[in-house]
UniProtKB/TrEMBL annotation:
This is EF-hand domain-containing protein. It comes from Apteryx owenii. It holds the Pfam family S_100. One of its GO terms (biological process) is endothelial cell migration. Signal peptide: none annotated. Coiled coil: none annotated. Gene3D superfamilies: EF-hand (1.10.238.10). One of its GO terms (cellular component) is cytoplasm.
Length: 99
């Protein structure tokens, strides 16, 4: 039986592949695929989505090829997860020194 974390990782990989293999079949996220992925799956965590999406894409497109590899998508996932974590804590960012 898989752990919750294993299931969550499988879910993240599967969602990436649902969008990255659409058109063309290349295992990268175009801007349009990225937009669809976020608006359909992360809407509760994104406010004023168009500027946020554009900023996330630009910041995480490390090699500036105008598409996101899975590695680059993992950076987006970390940022969205951090935002969700802050929302859960009432916008108070958790810090290591708070432990």
């Amino acid at each position: 039986m898989k752990t919750d974390l294993e299931l969550a990782l499988d879910c993240a990989i599967n969602i990436y592949h649902q969008y990255s293999v659409k058109k063309p079949l290349d295992d990268y996220l175009s801007r349009g695929e990225f937009r669809a992925l976020l608006t359909e799956n992360a809407k509760p965590f994104l406010t004023n989505t168009k500027p946020v999406r554009a900023k996330l894409f630009k910041e995480t497109d490390i090699n500036k090829d105008r598409e996101l590899s899975f590695e680059e998508f993992c950076i987006v996932l970390a940022k969205v997860t951090d935002d969700a974590h802050r929302i859960i804590h009432g916008s108070d960012r958790c810090a290591p020194e708070a432990d």
